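Section 5: illustrative case.
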């Protein structure tokens, strides 16, 4: 089975879309799939995240780059650039994780792919796909997409389909919901532009609890690495750059400070309560859902937050509250979502 993957990564959109495509790719590789990634990657280090066994074709910059993550890009320009790289090649599937691409682009890629899988959580544009994956916790997910999908599209909804790497499933097997202790904190917002949230979080943590262990994770393109490294010059504090061992850090964490992106499901799978900053419009609904179920607390919009907002939220936490949040997070995700998605894709491949 040959699979074409269309995904981008940049400081604005982060690396989460690329990360979840890679998670699904590794699981499908075990089923014999071969991959061609077609991408725009703003940081050279993001290319290194893609296994050497996968073909990578890099697209030229767009004439008019999007100004925000949800902005549609020129479908004709994007497709023609990709077609130059692909020639006449054909694939069994095209996997698309891109807020800027919609049904007009999907129709064009049918020349190269028999079936299309779209990863989405916005429900804000037509999607001409055979299989839709939206792992968000929406009250009525089918209604959100009813006018946006092809009539016979197979739909996978909810956190039970969250794409997590095997190490999260393995780490979960040795864990249980937290009892409310608070000795270790993980700070991770995004692999892209965090709107200064990592710095604010560290400043808030500086004088909060003596002896606190703090793990700080940033992407390779983090603009203020030197300043963050200086802030991490504390006993028990460590800055981790572009890592592949997030499951281990989360398994050890009692609390996470982060954004309401794809990493939210990683935190939930390991029962880590979270304080959330909203970094973009597309994170609001997920953040609200996590707060509604009791797995997290929303600090506010990242562009508006100050150190004092973090300090107030941290000082208000109690052991009982942390224990409740951990238990609720644990219930949201069981770590088996990737296997369910692979099963659905393989079943659809065999049926048609």
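Designed sequence:
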């Amino acid at each position: 089975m040959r699979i074409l993957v269309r995904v981008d990564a940049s400081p604005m959109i982060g690396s989460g879309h690329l990360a979840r495509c890679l998670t699904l790719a590794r699981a499908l590789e075990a089923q014999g799939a071969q991959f061609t990634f077609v991408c725009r990657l703003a940081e050279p280090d993001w290319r290194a995240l893609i296994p050497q066994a996968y073909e990578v074709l890099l697209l030229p910059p767009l004439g008019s780059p999007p100004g925000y993550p949800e902005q549609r890009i020129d479908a004709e320009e994007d497709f023609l650039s990709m077609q130059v790289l692909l020639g006449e090649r054909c694939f069994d599937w095209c996997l698309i994780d891109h807020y800027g691409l919609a049904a007009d682009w999907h129709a064009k890629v049918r020349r190269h792919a028999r079936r299309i899988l779209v990863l989405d959580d916005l429900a804000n544009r037509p999607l001409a796909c055979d299989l839709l994956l939206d792992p968000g916790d929406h009250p009525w997910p089918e209604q959100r997409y009813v006018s946006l999908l092809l009539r016979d599209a197979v739909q996978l909804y909810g956190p039970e389909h969250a794409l997590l790497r095997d190490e999260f499933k393995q780490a979960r097997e040795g864990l249980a919901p937290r009892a409310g202790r608070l000795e270790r904190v993980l700070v991770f917002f995004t692999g892209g532009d965090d709107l200064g949230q990592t710095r604010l979080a560290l400043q808030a943590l500086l004088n909060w609890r003596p002896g606190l262990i703090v793990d700080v994770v940033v992407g390779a393109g983090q603009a203020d690495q030197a300043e963050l490294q200086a802030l991490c010059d504390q006993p028990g504090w460590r800055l981790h750059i572009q890592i592949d061992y997030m499951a281990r850090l989360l398994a050890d964490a009692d609390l996470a400070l982060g954004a309401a992106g794809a990493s939210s499901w990683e935190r939930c799978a390991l029962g880590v309560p979270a304080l959330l900053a909203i970094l973009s419009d597309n994170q609001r609904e997920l953040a609200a859902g996590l707060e509604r179920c009791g797995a997290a607390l929303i600090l506010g919009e990242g562009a508006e937050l100050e150190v004092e907002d973090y300090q107030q939220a941290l000082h208000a936490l109690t052991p009982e509250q942390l224990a409740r949040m951990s238990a609720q997070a644990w219930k949201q995700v069981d770590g088996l979502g990737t296997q369910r998605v692979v099963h659905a894709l393989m079943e659809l491949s065999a049926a048609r």
